[in-house]
Design a protein that fits this description.
By secondary structure, the protein is α/β, with parallel strands linked by helices. The protein has helices spanning about 15-25, 55-65, 85-95, 115-125, 145-150, 155-175; strands spanning about 1-5, 30-35, 70-75, 105-110, 130-140.
Length: about 180
């Protein structure tokens, strides 16, 4: 199963990106998890720019989504809201078919961020009937460096959480595909 893990952070030393990279490294051979950490490289969305040809970074992002069976999104909270880069990335997908029905689940690298998660759940459930609000895995990695997060993810308890999450996500993807 091919899974695209999207980081909602534009930071180079992002805890969410580090979490997703660690997930990609410890995932079972049944799960090919690739990480997209380029939300800050997408141009600002405008309906005027939706006509062909799309800006190259947007087209590349849409192609990644199309090629994967499902999406996992992990994002920080900025000012109690979805970070602008992630919201912009989602805005580029609203009137396209790549996101429709695409299985989507959330991970989170902090014990905080409930306001952002609530907003993100609303937005994702609006753009894709494949969004699975019941699939969520949270880690308490706030204030840890990417290296420390990688070390934490080697712990058996965290590896078990990831394995269980990916197993549940696989079942959700298979269920959606069978409709």
């Amino acid at each position: 199963m091919k899974i695209l893990a999207i980081s909602g952070s534009g930071r180079k030393a992002s805890s969410n990106t580090a979490l997703l990279k660690a997930v990609s490294e410890i995932a079972s051979p049944d799960h090919e998890v690739s990480v997209f950490s380029g939300v800050s490289e997408l141009p600002v969305f405008s309906p005027d720019a939706e006509n062909a040809p799309l800006p190259f970074p947007v087209q590349a992002f849409c192609n990644l989504i199309r090629k994967n069976d499902g999406l996992i999104i992990s994002s920080p909270e900025y000012v109690r809201a979805i970070p602008g880069g992630l919201k912009n990335a989602i805005d580029w997908l609203v009137s396209r078919d790549e996101i429709i029905g695409k299985p989507i689940a959330l991970m989170h690298a902090s014990h905080r961020g409930d306001d952002m998660l609530k907003q993100l759940r609303l937005v994702l459930s609006t753009v894709s009937d494949g969004f699975r609000s019941d699939l969520f895995q949270e880690f308490e990695f706030m204030q840890l460096s990417p290296h420390e997060i990688t070390q934490e993810m080697t712990k058996p308890s965290n590896q078990q959480k990831v394995a269980h999450f990916l197993k549940d996500f696989t079942h959700a993807v298979e269920h959606i595909k069978s409709r």
